Amino acid sequence: MPENTLYENHPSMFRNHPVWFIICVMLIAAFGLGLLILLVWWIRCIGTKLTVTDERTILRKGILSKYTSEVYHSDVRSVQLSQRFMERLFGVGTIAISSAGQGDIEIVVPGIPSPNKIKEIIDGSRRQQRKGAERTSD
Q: Quick one: DSSP state of residue 17?
C-alpha cells in the first residue's frame, strides 16, 4: 500500500522571526545589506522541507548539496514541540523527533508552521500501528 503524504511544508520566514524580518527590510532601505540577508534566509527556508506521511517523517535540507533524515513512526521514541510566545501567536514552532535507534534527536525543524498538527499526525500513526500490532498478535 503506498504512503499518503499528510503534511508537507517549509519553515516560515516572517512568522518565525518577525522582528528580524522587519529589521532586514529596514536594512534594505538603509544599506542594501538586508536584501542579501533575506536572500540567504529565503534560500535556507526553501531548501528545507519537512514531509510527514502515514508511515514516516522525512527532513530534506539543501539546494546544491542534499541532506535527508527520516524516522519511521513505529520507531519514534519522542516528539518534542516548543513554541515561544511570538511563535504561538503566529502558529509556528520547533519540532524535534527522536527514535529508539538513536541516542539523540534526529530531526529538528525550527519555524515550521502548525507544529501541533505534525505531532498529532505522528501520535495518531503510532497509535494505529500499535493497534495493528495488537490485532496481529491475537
A: -
Written as nine digits, the cell of 44 is: 535556507
Q: Which pTM value belongs to this model?
A: 0.87
Is the Cβ–Cβ distance between 112 and 42 less than 8 Å? no
Report the C-alpha gap between 50 and 60 in whole angstroms: 7
pLDDT digits (tens, 9 = 90+) for 80-117: 999 999 999 999 999 999 988 777 899 999 999 999 99
Dig out the grid coordinates for 13 from the structure: 520566514
- What's the grid cell of residue 126? 503510532
Residue numbers of the domain that contains 89: 5-137
Query: Helix 18-30 to helix 33-46 angle, to the nearest 10 degrees?
Result: 140
Domain count, the chain: 1
- Alpha-carbon distance 84 to 134, whole Å? 38
CATH code for the domain in which residue 66 is found:
2.30.29.30
